[in-house]
């Protein structure tokens, strides 16, 4: 299906035209039909000669209902712009033209209606004026068709023109995230809450869990049922008019301007960086504005940086991303001030003096493609998913710009990554100079030092900085054997144990050497000593020497026999035998016996 919105001045015959094309009544209210005046949005659908299904969103033309008109045309990708041949171009025609231009709509048909009331020359004059007025908009080269809905003249030509235009509309994305702007909410007896909207991208299916972003906040909802053109479907693809029967929400809790979105897939923002696309210079417009996005109309405050760039602060948060189009309107009048395109959907807070000028300079250098490098640089490190939510990355296979390192699902600014490495190296150097016996920085301390947003970023920082990791600590390379002042004492201990491998020094002897717990821990990390329980210290080669002696004993053997074979005391023999048990080299059989474990191969 395709969705087409009407546009045009009041009493131009838009509803009559939709009625003639579809055979359906677009005016939903009794008052509309009684007065012959469209007040709110109307909906109808038909099938064109090619077999293409098309739905129409009929909008009001009166200036008092411009807000309703913008809600109808906002999500629609194609427009049917109607000018009455007998009345010609009107003030409301200009308002609707400005809205079409502000939204960047580039596909449509120009219809000169009520041709049964105009002469051939009048038709030519109105068409010439209409072409002049539409110059510079996406409809400047749109096909024009003269139609009379009363006698049917030109309806076949209009259907053919619509078929041709729709054939050139780019296919929407059927996969990916959904954002459905709500234009109606009501209750059906026996079904509950129903909302309608134009599905522009993504696919909706019965049973989908969505997030309602409403006037009163956000809440999860479930799609109980799904219809398009009064027919139930298991799923619906874009572009389509859809009606969703929702669970877990009442009709008064959802209204026009709310949005149903894929959970955790959209940023929700109230502050935007924008670029002027049409209309008055930002330096010439009021500070207080009404901003239209999708079907939403939100009061906002504008802070211009120059004629074409500004910061926009909305009264409530909306699901908006890079390249989204906005319509700006003066709340004191009923005219469109112009259009804007979002360049930054997540701008930085302006906390310090000069922040505004710095961000303005960056904003004016952006284009509609977005500034991935600038966004990553501003944050230092940002997850790929967040860049996707902002609309900065394509759906598949994004290519990082120069100056960005991709580490897992994180995009890191290269200078920031280098600064992390430098800071960690300097911290380790200072630690080693201050305390050579320290094992280095723990991983937690290193992450806190660098203020990393994710512990997973620490490993690549350590690796690229040429640092070493062991037992949960990070250290400088080449410092593992540096014991500082304790080095000579450890050397003396090694000399003694080399002479008598199992004569472990007493605590008083270690203290006399100046070897406390920290010094011995550092010596053990460097592979100089082996520490057993109860303060027993041996050389790392002692277990192998012990196994050689124990293997010569008749198996199994007792602790006393082991002590005698090793020529040591029970204080040393018991912790040493327990160590051998833990390595699987000996096996304890009972309270008094062990055996050497013989391994084959």
Structure overview:
With about 600 residues, the protein is an alpha+beta fold. Helices cover about 30% and strands about 30% of the residues. The chain is built from 18 helices and 32 strands. The strands form eight sheets. The chain has a six-stranded mixed β-sheet, sandwiched between helices. β10 (about 210-215) and β11 (about 215-230) form a beta hairpin. The chain starts with a strand and ends in a 5-residue tail after the last strand. About 40% of the residues are buried. The mean pLDDT is about 90.
What's the topology here?
Elements: E1 2-8, H1 14-22, H2 30-35, E2 42-47, E3 53-58, H3 66-73, E4 78-84, H4 91-103, E5 107-113, H5 120-134, E6 144-146, H6 155-167, E7 179-188, E8 192-199, E9 204-205, E10 209-214, E11 217-228, E12 231-232, E13 235-236, E14 240-247, E15 259-261, E16 269-279, E17 288-293, E18 296-304, E19 309-318, E20 325-329, E21 336-344, H7 355-364, H8 372-379, E22 381-383, H9 384-389, E23 404-407, E24 410-413, H10 414-434, E25 441-442, H11 443-450, H12 458-464, E26 468-470, E27 473-475, H13 487-499, H14 507-513, H15 517-525, E28 530-531, E29 537-538, H16 542-550, E30 557-558, H17 559-566, H18 570-582, E31 586-588, E32 593-596
Parallel strand pairs: 1-3, 1-4, 4-5, 5-6
Antiparallel strand pairs: 2-3, 7-8, 7-15, 8-14, 9-13, 10-11, 10-15, 11-12, 11-14, 16-19, 16-21, 17-18, 17-20, 18-19, 20-21, 22-24, 23-24, 25-27, 26-27, 28-29, 30-32, 31-32
Largest sheet: 6 strands, mixed
Q: Which structural class is indicated by helix and strand composition?
A: alpha+beta
The pLDDT mean sits at 88
Taking the alpha carbons of the first and last residues, their distance comes to 73 Å
Number of E strands: 32
Shape category: elongated
Estimate what percentage of residues fall within beta strands.
25-35%
């Amino acid at each position: 299906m395709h969705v087409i919105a009407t546009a045009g001045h009041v009493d131009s015959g838009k509803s009559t035209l939709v009625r003639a094309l579809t055979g359906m009544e677009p005016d939903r209210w009794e008052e509309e039909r009684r007065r012959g005046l469209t007040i709110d949005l109307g909906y109808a659908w038909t099938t064109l000669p090619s077999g293409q299904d098309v739905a129409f969103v009929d909008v009001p033309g009166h200036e008092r209902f411009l807000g309703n008109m913008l809600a109808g045309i906002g999500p629609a990708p194609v427009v049917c712009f109607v000018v009455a041949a007998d009345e010609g171009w009107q003030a409301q025609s200009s308002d609707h033209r400005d809205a079409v231009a502000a939204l960047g709509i580039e596909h449509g048909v120009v219809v000169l209606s009520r041709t049964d009331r105009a002469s051939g020359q009048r038709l030519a004059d109105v068409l010439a004026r209409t072409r002049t007025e539409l110059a510079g908009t996406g409809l400047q080269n749109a096909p024009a068709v003269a139609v009379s809905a009363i006698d049917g003249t030109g309806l076949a030509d209009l259907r053919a023109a619509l078929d041709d235009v729709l054939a050139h509309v780019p296919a929407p994305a059927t996969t990916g995230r959904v954002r459905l702007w709500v234009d109606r909410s009501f209750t059906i007896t026996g079904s509950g809450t129903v909302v309608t909207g134009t599905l522009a991208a993504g696919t909706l299916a019965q049973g989908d869990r969505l997030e309602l972003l409403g006037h009163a906040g956000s809440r999860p909802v479930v799609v109980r049922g799904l219809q398009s053109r009064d027919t139930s479907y298991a799923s619906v693809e874009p572009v389509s008019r859809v009606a969703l029967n929702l669970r877990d929400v009442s009709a008064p809790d959802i209204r026009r301007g709310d949005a149903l979105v894929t959970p955790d897939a959209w940023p929700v923002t109230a502050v935007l960086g924008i670029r002027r696309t049409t209309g008055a210079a930002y330096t010439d417009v009021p500070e207080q504005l009404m901003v239209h996005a999708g079907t939403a109309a939100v009061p906002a405050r504008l802070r211009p940086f120059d004629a074409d760039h500004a910061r926009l602060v909305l009264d409530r948060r909306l699901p908006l991303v890079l390249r989204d189009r906005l319509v700006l309107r003066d709340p004191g009048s009923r005219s469109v001030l112009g259009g804007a395109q979002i360049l930054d959907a997540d701008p930085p807070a302006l906390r310090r003096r000069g922040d505004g000028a710095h961000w303005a300079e960056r904003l004016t250098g952006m284009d509609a493609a977005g500034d991935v490098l600038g966004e990553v640089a501003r944050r230092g490190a940002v997850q790929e998913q967040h860049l996707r939510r902002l609309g900065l990355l394509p759906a598949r296979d994004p290519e990082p710009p120069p100056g960005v390192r991709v580490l897992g699902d994180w995009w890191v600014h290269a200078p920031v990554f280098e600064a992390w490495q430098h800071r960690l190296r300097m911290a380790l150097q200072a630690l080693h100079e201050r305390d050579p016996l320290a094992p280095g920085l723990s991983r937690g301390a290193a992450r806190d030092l660098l203020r990393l947003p994710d512990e997973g970023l620490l490993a690549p920082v350590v690796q690229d900085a040429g640092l070493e990791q062991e037992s949960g600590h990070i250290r400088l390379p080449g410092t593992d054997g540096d014991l500082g002042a304790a080095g000579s004492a450890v050397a003396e201990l090694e000399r003694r144990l080399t002479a008598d491998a199992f004569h472990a020094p007493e605590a008083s002897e270690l203290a006399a050497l100046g070897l406390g717990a920290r010094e011995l821990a550092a010596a053990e990390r460097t592979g100089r000593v082996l520490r057993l329980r109860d303060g027993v210290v041996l050389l790392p080669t002692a277990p192998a020497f012990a196994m050689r002696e124990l293997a010569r004993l008749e198996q199994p053997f007792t602790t006393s026999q082991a002590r005698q074979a090793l020529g040591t005391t029970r204080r040393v023999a018991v912790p040493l035998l327990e160590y051998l048990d833990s390595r699987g080299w000996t096996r304890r059989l009972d309270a008094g016996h062990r055996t050497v474990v013989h391994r084959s191969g």
